[in-house]
Amino acid sequence: MHVPILKQGDYLIASVQSILSDEDLLQLRDDLAAKVGKFRSRAVIIDVTVMDVIDSFATRTLRAIAHMLKLRGAETVIVGIQPEVAFAMVQLGLTLEGVGTALDLEEGLAFLSTHSKRSIKHGK
Amino acid sequence: MENESRVPISSNIDIVTARQHGRKLALELGFEGAEVTLIAAAISEVARNIMDHAKRGEIILANVRNGNKQGIQIIAQDEGPGIPNIPQAMQYGYSSRKGLGVGLPGAKWLMDEFFIVSHIGKGTTVTMRKWLH
């Protein structure tokens, strides 16, 4: 199912609404890469609260999305990974290394606002 | 076997279907919370393995009993090329083609029992079980 992407100021918010197939995830990757350019977004929040499982393919794709958007100049924060899903990911040895994560949408927005302030201060 | 359900795997969307059927059966059998998700994740990985290597196959979900123990059994079978070197395929991080090389060893970690039988040119059958505690 198609993932809606909302523009909120400098940010894009992609909220996953239902369980995603592999194609849906790849579509999300392509949509985000295009929209970050179109709206000159500086950060992207991907809300995965409804994802029942984040398996090896989903992990690899989320990581690829974050790294790709980084190359396009935008930070990515994955929010809403459920405790059982996190547990299964750890058991599978899957990590989202190098990708920002936050508890939920609210924490994700807070993460981005401190992150972007710090980036400006340190000139990073 | 009671409650047996078969999910043909021939496209990526079938991976999602297989894992939803597995989740439903696990809940019916009395598995809870995190365990249901672990079972769904294991199904996802073995179904993905079918897609990546054999293109088509089948996931067979059933309840299983051993004395007083009750659990779920998941069989993933395909008629693909077979796995030439099973110990190597079960090494974490080893991938013959695509993927993270996490699938089969990862699924093994998520379940209580895990067996692979593979014949070159004939196919692979993965059988895994998780028991209710």
Helices and strands in order, then pairings?
The complex is a heterodimer of chains A (124) and B (133).
Chain A: E1 5-8, E2 11-15, H1 22-39, E3 43-47, H2 56-71, E4 75-79, H3 83-92, E5 100-102, H4 105-121
Parallel strand pairs in A: 2-3, 3-4, 4-5
Antiparallel strand pairs in A: 1-2
Helix pairs in contact in A: 1-2
Chain B: E1 5-9, H1 12-29, H2 33-53, E2 57-66, E3 69-78, H3 86-89, H4 103-110, E4 113-119, E5 123-131
Antiparallel strand pairs in B: 1-2, 2-3, 3-5, 4-5
Helix pairs in contact in B: 1-2, 2-4
Short description:
The complex is a heterodimer of chains A (124) and B (133). Chain A is an alpha/beta fold and 124 residues long.
Describe the 3D structure.
With 124 residues, chain A is α/β, with parallel strands linked by helices. Chain A has a single domain, classed as STAS domain (Transcription Regulator spoIIAA), CATH 3.30.750.24. In chain A, 49% of the residues lie in helices and 18% in strands. Chain A has helices at 22-39, 56-71, 83-92, 105-121, and strands at residues 5-8, 11-15, 43-47, 75-79, 100-102. In chain A, strands 1-2-3-4-5 form a five-stranded mixed β-sheet. In chain A, β3, α2 and β4 (75-79) form a beta-alpha-beta unit. In chain A, α1 runs parallel beside α2 (56-71). The longest helix of chain A is centred in the first third of the chain and has 18 residues, at 22-39. Chain A is globular, with a radius of gyration of 14 Å. The model of chain A has no long low-confidence stretch (mean pLDDT 90). With 133 residues, chain B is an alpha+beta fold. Chain B has a single domain (5-131), classed as Histidine kinase-like ATPase, C-terminal domain (Heat Shock Protein 90, 2-Layer Sandwich), CATH 3.30.565.10. The mean pLDDT of chain B is 90.
